Amino acid sequence: MFGTAIAASGLRKAYKDKTVLDGIDLDVRAGTVFSLLGPNGAGKTTTVNVLTTLLAPDAGRAVVAGHDVATETRAVRRAIGVTGQFAAVDDLLTGAENLLMTARLLHLPKAEGREAAERLLDRFDIADAADKPAAAYSGGMRRRLDLAMTLVSRPRIIFLDEPTTGLDPRSRLTLWAIVRELVADGVTIFLTTQYLEEADKLADRVAVLDRGRIVAEGTPAELKRKVPGSHIRLRFRDRRELDAGAVVLPTATRDDDTLSLHVPGDGGMRTYRALLARLDEHAVDVEEMSLHTPDLDDVFLALTGSAGDTGGTSGTREAPGTEHSDDTNTAVTA
Questions:
Q1: Residue 167 sits in the same domain as residue 267
Q2: Does residue 284 register a pLDDT over 70?
Q3: Same-domain status, 97 and 160
Q4: Which of 38, 85, 207, 269 gives the lowest tally of CB atoms within 10 Å of its CB?
Q5: Of 152-161, 200-209, 281-290, 303-312, which gets the smallest average pLDDT?
Q6: 209, 248: one domain
Q7: Angstrom distances, CA of residue 117 to CA of 111, 153, 178, 283
């Protein structure tokens, strides 16, 4: 759970006159989830391809599981697993046969391969469909089988390149649970995703990639604090109390539909107490106080430019598949 699993410095990659990676640096701690966010064309998949030895960088250096990706490609490949956004299963084979084929390609002994197949079929809840052809599997089952095939070699570092693209919400939640289980076992996950909530829910650290450069990095909470917009919402019982509160707090933004006032602030207890004291002084009752902060959607848009620059996918406010939750972090009933 300690140490560096993936490190990169000054990675560059270009195709003719188009620069895809423009000197990126990465430091991924072992036993964590590291998420790389970025609009279409930002360089996410190219980064994964370089780190997994599928592409050679034009400049810079990357070390994965202690091995240089340029000079120790075989050692890197033995240490990692890769699952892309399209399941790499053989539709003509059954689920069990896909796993056994993977074990044979890894030159595992027959008994070890059978044990791995049975264990993974159970773990990924596809044992009941083990003898059915993969062509009959749902999208979520195919994705689980694909990830199970990745785990046959027991890799300690797994690259998930947009693994939940096209999945329904239930299948996405199932895959999230599997990712959490893997990390609890000490596996390092390098995740690229277009789903902002996915990074928010799973990642220990997030890097935002835009036009081939890392424009921000930190925990989801740290990135949210980079964007202004935190405010305290005061909700009132009726219109009369709302009117009275608006007189006491004339700089607050008023929302008549929700009978609330929005006051800029960081939600610290001093701020809460000061607001309540001012309202109490004028005998104004507050039904509820809550802190609202920017979410990763706001961070993404602020750091990667306008929605029009993102190709209309991950950078838009309503990115396909993004499941928005209420952005209330703290609620205090007065």
A1: no
A2: yes
A3: yes
A4: 269
A5: 303-312
A6: no
A7: 10, 11, 17, 68
Question: What is the SS3 string spanning 250-276?
Answer: CCCEEECCCCEEEEECCCCHHHHHHHH
The pLDDT mean for the chain works out to 86
In the chain, the largest separation of any two C-alpha atoms, in whole Å, equals: 79
Number of domains composing the chain: 2
For β-strands 33-37 and 188-193, DSSP reports them as: parallel
Residue type for position 245 = G
Residue 136 maps to a domain: yes
Check: CB of residue 188 under 8 Å from CB of residue 32: yes
Specify the DSSP class assigned to residue 133.
B
Asked if residue 243 and residue 220 are part of one domain, the reply reads no
**Beta-sheet strands, E only, within 71-173:** 80-83, 157-161
Query: Does residue 126 fall inside a structural domain?
Result: yes
Range of the domain at 274: 231-292
The CA-based angle 173-175-176, given to 5 degrees, is 60
Query: CA-to-CA distance for 306 and 79, rounded, in angstroms?
Result: 39
As given in the structure block, the two tokens for residue 278 are 């001012």
Q: What CATH number has the domain bearing residue 165?
A: 3.40.50.300
Please compute the mean of the pLDDT values over residues 145-157 and round it to a whole number.
94
What's the one-letter identity of residue 211? R
Give the DSSP letter of residue 107: T
Q: Is residue 40 part of a domain?
A: yes
| DSSP character string of 160-218 | EESTTTT--HHHHHHHHHHHHHHHHTT-EEEEEES-HHHHHHH-SEEEEEETTEEEEEE
Q: For 115-124, 251-260, 269-278, which range has the lowest pLDDT when averaged over its residues?
A: 269-278
Q: Do residues 176 and 241 share a domain?
A: no
Collapsing DSSP to helix, strand or coil, 68 comes out as: strand
Residue 320 included in any domain: no
What is the rounded CA–CA span in Å between residue 241 and residue 287?
Answer: 10
Boundary (domain end) residue, out of 225, 244, 267:
225
pLDDT digits (tens, 9 = 90+) for 27-85: 999 999 999 998 888 899 999 999 999 999 999 999 999 999 999 999 999 999 998 76
Average pLDDT over residues 143-172: 90
